[in-house]
Design goal:
Layout: H1 2-11, E1 17-25, E2 29-36, E3 39-46, H2 52-66, E4 86-88, E5 91-97, E6 101-103, H3 108-122, H4 135-145, H5 152-160, E7 170-173, E8 182-185, E9 190-192, E10 199-202, H6 203-213, E11 216-218, E12 224-226, H7 228-241, H8 246-263, H9 274-284, H10 286-291
Antiparallel strand pairs: 1-2, 2-3, 3-5, 4-5, 6-8, 7-10, 8-9, 11-12
């Protein structure tokens, strides 16, 4: 860690660099809060398991959002040579603005604000680098992983009727919409973080992400519930920016189903599959889920 800080000291031209704390210590990505003579910053290190292509897309995403009239993401700090990143000890390194504020929670007001912010993000439609969502590959894989499932025929029917999302509106998407990936800063603005999979893609898949993933949960063994109030708050915020017609709502629901299929593990006979139960619940309660949109 000392060598990394020394290299950052030299490359970015700081007069001092001190580690305050580690925020995330994953295998592919490490995140630190540092103190410098210019203030606090976020230091991000991307390990060898994080591909160069993914890292360069991450940097491009932040540079793209920095040039938009509405601030939705942290700013990258250029080094003293004007570069947005460096490679140190076989790791890609970048330094970003530290957002002083609080992480959003699962309260109604925060969900509403998050919905507004995501709708603004989706309004950006001139980013050219694709997100990491591979729609056709995901659908093909879904057929394979449910081949031995006793509900295979029903699941296949669900997969069969998924729309061709490429035929519908594309925009800038986040791919991991959740309160913990957003911060309200001191100016009461919502700033999004964690853009690992972000890029150009289907806004309906992205808008559908929280509908099942976040708002349908177990509250004990066999007790599945839909958090109607929080879901309604999020999508009310979204629709305050982007009006949703009937077709839009159907596509968002389809996007939610797509995500659930993507996240589900391969079926293994004799094992519990809570995510399959969640999908079955979402299908059985389709009208209630769509009613919040």
């Amino acid at each position: 860690m000392d060598n990394l800080l020394n290299q950052v000291y030299k490359i970015w031209g700081f007069k001092k660099v001190e580690l305050i704390k580690a925020i995330r210590s994953g295998i592919s990505k490490k995140i630190y809060l540092i103190e410098t003579n210019e203030g606090k910053f976020i230091l991000m290190g991307f390990g060898p398991t994080y591909s160069e292509e993914s890292f360069l897309r991450y940097i491009s995403v932040l540079e793209y959002l920095e040039n938009k009239p509405v601030k939705l993401a942290p700013k990258i700090l250029m080094d003293k040579e004007g570069n947005s990143y460096a490679k140190i000890d076989n790791k890609f390194i970048c330094i970003m603005e530290y957002i002083d504020g609080r992480t959003l929670g699962e309260e109604l007001e925060d969900e509403y604000r998050l919905g507004e912010t995501i709708a603004l993000l989706h309004s950006f439609d001139d980013f050219q680098i694709e997100s990491d969502i591979r729609i056709n590959d995901t659908i093909e894989e879904a057929y394979k992983k449910f081949y031995e499932c006793p509900y295979k025929s029903k699941l296949y029917k669900i997969i069969d009727v998924l729309p061709n999302f490429y035929d519908y509106r594309q925009g800038f998407i986040h791919t991991d919409i959740a309160p913990h990936n957003a911060i309200i800063n001191k100016n009461n603005k919502v700033i999004l973080i964690d853009f690992d999979g972000a890029g150009k893609g289907s806004i309906y898949i992205d808008a559908g992400f929280p509908l099942i993933t976040q708002f349908v949960r177990f509250h004990g063994p066999g007790d599945l519930r839909f958090n109607y109030e929080n879901a309604k708050a999020f999508y009310s915020g979204y629709s305050s920016i982007t009006k949703l017609e009937t077709k839009d709502k159907q596509l968002i629901y389809a996007g939610a189903v797509f995500w659930q299929l993507a996240h589900m593990p391969s079926y293994q006979p004799g094992t519990e599959n809570n995510m399959l139960d969640i999908l079955k619940f979402a299908i059985a309660n389709r009208d209630e889920l769509i009613s919040v949109l």
